[in-house]
Amino acid sequence: MKAASFAYVRPATLDDVLAELAGGDGKVLAGGQSLVPVLAMRLGRPATLVDINSVEGLDGLARDGDVVRVGATVRQRTLERSPLAAAVPLLPLALPFVGHRELRSRGTVCGSLAHADPAAELPAVACCLGATLEVAGPDGRRRVPAEEFFVGAMSTGAGPEDVLIGAEFPIAGAGEGHGFAEIARRHGDFALAGVATRVRVDGDGAVQQARLTGFGISDRPVTRDVTELLRSAGPRRAEPDLRAATAELAAEIVDTGGDAHGSTGYRRRLFAVLAARELQKAHRRALPTATEDPS
Predict the structure, then answer these.
(1) Is this prediction's pTM over 0.85?
(2) Beta carbons of 181 and 215 less than 8 angstroms apart
């Protein structure tokens, strides 16, 4: 199929972007790696595509205090290769799983967040880290916590006249470790199940906080505080000791329906295994004597 007819504009300022979006019949174009297939299948028929790539300032990528700020037109591959990504270790762990290198060279970080596919990696990373998203609209700018931004499958807190202009990812502190993994039929396919984890320990190695976000398992990323779960696994936090607890968690939060690629039960088993493994890795990486894990 081919896209239905549409008008195309390329504004030079954010005010002009918002003016073009007024009325709610426009759609923002940044990288286009999610939008163009939607148009081609005629799942979306916007009257106007509003290309934001010429808007000054939206291509910014910088460290700002205790966050790394990513502008709306920053490509995924740009962030993946930037030294700044090392300050947010969960990003370089997750970005290689986003599609293929060629797609990441064009697709944007904020575009993936705005698309809000429930099997996408970057929304899960944003939720696990407690990222903040900046949205501009007719009533001005507002900052939205990532967990509040995603409200359903392909659905966010941004309205049809809004545009996501940036995302702020917290920089990792001392005693913080991360884990990320997903299972897909082929690399670059949508995840059948995936997890992002973050663990913080004190100077003695005691667990202070643990967070886990699952994706591909519901209609949006699902985040849980799993501090007590990790503490209850014993001093070694071995993967088998975590598995029973993560299986219980899977039964609670994995609610996506089965399909040709896997049943709900299968996805629960995948999630339980991945969650136990990546919590263990995150804890190990957070310890004061941690060394790089080759796996």
Answers:
(1) yes
(2) no
Domains of the chain: 7-51 (3.30.43.10), 61-170 (3.30.465.10), 176-286 (3.30.390.50)
Q: List Cβ neighbours of 25 (8 Å cut-off, separation of 6 or more).
A: 46, 47, 48, 160
Whether 150 and 123 have beta carbons less than 8 Å apart is answered as yes
200: β partners: 176, 209
H/E run at residue 142? strand 140-145
Write the pLDDT tens digit of every residue in 235-268: 666 778 899 999 999 999 999 988 888 899 999 9
Distance CA 281, CA 271 (A): 15
7 — alpha (psi -120 to 50), left (phi > 0) or beta?
A: beta
Q: Check residue 259 and report its DSSP letter.
A: B
Q: What are phi and psi of 265, to 5 degrees?
A: -60, -40
The number of angstroms, rounded, from the C-alpha of 270 to the middle of its chain's C-alpha atoms is 19
* Cβ partners under 8 Å of residue 19, min gap 6: 11
